[in-house]
Specification:
The protein is an all-alpha fold. The chain is built from 22 helices and three strands.
Length: 584
């Protein structure tokens, strides 16, 4: 499974408290006095819930030591994650005990904030437990998440000029061969059980590893490390296992979906729930995608008639893809545009928010090691006391990057999108740590899509071309609902998925291929975006209808954001509570 860093830090300058040693799981319902608490149970009234949250957070940090470092918690700085099948089994058994304890405790919680924390955690843990059907750690292979990728992150996490940072970096690099071998063991366990990645993803990972192993610059992180050769040898072992053992048995382009895995349909049902937080069927998801595409195509035709003199959808898409004047000319131009649009958005958003994050956001290019294999952009949350939030833009092959889409992209990833939501959550006061740093796909990605449309209300698109870029991205997200279901529930081939996105979006071909391969390796994740945005749009329409002239965008945004990430049913309940309060 891809390493997903804990979503992330408190305001700049925050010093993380020490994390207590992991307790034994026989300490059911043990009350925790105030003096023994950390940020894990901040604001919690019930002592038994506080004890449970302290243990849950300690486990989470231990399971993801790189994420713990990003959070400013340094107890696990000397170690790496354990991807072995045995560690996965132990973690599942431990979490089942915690979930049972939480379920028993919930009815006794009388404080509303405690009850909300328990409800959020229970939903997250139940969804995570259901995802065990996918056994993702035994077959996941992607150029976005090879051992090479997480190894290259280590120098970013540790200041090698500082004695403690240098020692932690050396310790983690020294642990790398054993961790890579554990990843190999997981892949072999998957092969033995009939679980294997698709051949395109495997080949991409092999190509990435071959490029790095042949280019000293891409292995620069290992130069100061005395144990460089064992680590490089372990990378070669991983590469050879992919080439000699995994690739010959990998799923071909006609069998890329979850249906090609044992228990594939149970896996996909769990993935839908996990990423949308709703009890949706695959058919319901696909129907929503088709309906949204029809509405978006109508908007595109209307603008295309004004801008290009035609309402023919294929002709509009061809113009957007192929017109050289709509492409960037250099990597520097891409980066400069992203920074300018970030600063412009920062100046506009105070008009519609009652609270904005203190933590700044900056722009960086995606590193060369990742750029050929990854998304058009992504957001990296802040690291407490060390780093701001970063909007990473892909400057690889800059003349393939579409200028008219760049504004919507910046607004989604940075402000008022991911950075605004995530940094605000990090800066919440008396809220348990797991809520401040939760990543709930439908909430986080739904907000970022909502932000793209909100930006149009704020005048942040210059012209119809940039609105076409916004709509192009909207068709991308709507088409995901159809494509993801097609791949994982209806037996679509990779070529069919690429064809559908080519016909229904104006995305560049390289983006389409990268996106389809992402959906193949990560069942259900792509569904959360549009499902979350549709729910936010529905809730806002409900609020506008109920409150009329009393409706406030700032008030609505506070209702959505000020409790941190929420599963969609709990978000709906919170917004309706705000509506009732405002309307009384």
């Amino acid at each position: 499974m891809p390493h997903l860093p804990l979503l992330l830090a408190l305001a700049c300058g925050y010093k993380a408290p020490p994390v207590p040693p992991e307790p034994r799981e026989d300490a059911r319902s043990t009350a925790l006095p105030q003096a023994a608490r950390t940020e894990a149970s901040a604001g919690v009234r019930d002592d038994r819930l506080a004890g449970l949250l302290e243990r849950q957070w300690a486990h989470r940090l231990a399971d993801d030591p790189l994420g713990a470092t990003e959070l400013g918690v340094h107890q696990h700085d000397a170690v790496l994650h354990d991807p072995s099948p045995e560690a996965t089994r132990r973690a599942r058994e431990r979490d089942q005990l915690l979930l049972a304890e939480l379920t028993d405790l919930q009815p006794a919680l009388t404080d509303p904030s405690d009850a909300l924390s328990a409800a959020i955690l229970r939903e997250m843990m139940e969804a995570d437990a259901a995802m065990a059907a996918c056994e993702t750690n035994t077959w996941y292979v992607s150029a976005r998440s090879t051992p090479l990728v997480w190894l290259s992150r280590l120098p970013e996490l540790h200041d090698a000029t500082d004695p403690a940072g240098g020692q932690a970096l050396a310790s983690r690099l020294g642990a790398a061969p054993a961790t890579i071998d554990a990843e190999i063991a997981s892949l072999r366990a998957g092969l033995a059980a009939g679980r294997v990645a698709d051949v395109v993803s495997v080949q991409r990972a092999i190509t990435q590893l071959d490029s790095a192993l042949a280019d000293p610059e891409l292995l620069a992180w290992a130069r100061p490390f005395s144990g460089r050769e064992p680590t490089v040898a372990a990378l070669r072992r991983y590469r050879d296992v992919l080439d000699n053992e995994v690739r010959p048995r990998a799923r071909d382009g006609a069998h890329v979906g979850a249906s090609g895995l044992p228990d594939g349909q149970a896996c996909y049902r769990a993935a839908i729930r996990y990423h949308t937080t709703l009890p949706l069927t695959a058919d319901e998801v696909a129907a929503a995608g088709h309906a949204e595409l029809a509405a978006l195509h109508a908007e595109i035709r209307a603008i295309g008639l004004r801008e290009f003199g035609t309402d023919d959808l294929p002709a509009i898409f061809a113009r957007l893809r192929d017109d050289p004047s709509l492409r960037f000319g250099s990597a520097e131009e891409i980066e400069a545009f992203a920074l300018a649009r970030l600063r412009r958005a920062e100046a506009a958003v105070p008009a519609v928010f009652s609270r904005l994050p203190v933590t700044p956001c900056e722009v960086r290019p995606i590193p060369p090691l990742e750029a050929p294999w990854t998304y058009v952009a992504y957001y990296k949350p802040p690291e407490p006391g060390r780093e701001p939030g970063y909007y990473y833009v892909n400057t690889h092959e800059p003349t393939t990057r579409l200028r008219h889409e760049a504004a919507a992209l910046a607004l989604h990833e940075a402000v008022p999108g991911h950075h605004t939501q995530i940094a605000l959550a990090q800066e919440l006061g008396d809220v348990p740590a797991f809520r401040r740093h939760a990543y709930i796909t439908a909430y986080a990605e739904g907000w970022a899509l909502y932000a793209e449309r909100l930006a149009d209300e704020l005048g942040l698109y210059d012209d119809d071309l940039e609105r076409l870029g916004m709509l192009s991205y909207a068709t991308w997200r709507a088409s995901r609902l159809v494509v993801d279901v097609g791949l994982h529930a209806r037996g679509w081939t990779r070529a069919e998925a690429i064809g559908f996105m080519t016909q229904n979006t104006a995305l560049a071909p390289n983006n389409i291929e990268n996106e389809v391969d992402r959906y193949v390796t990560w069942p259900g994740q792509a569904l959360g975006y549009q499902v979350g945005q549709l729910e936010l749009r529905r809730l806002r329409a409900e609020a506008e209808a109920a409150l009329g002239p009393a409706f406030s965008r700032a008030g609505f945004h506070a209702a959505v954001l000020d409790a941190g990430p929420l599963p969609l049913p709990l978000l709906g309940a919170r917004v309706r509570e705000w509506i009732n309060k405002e309307g009384s």
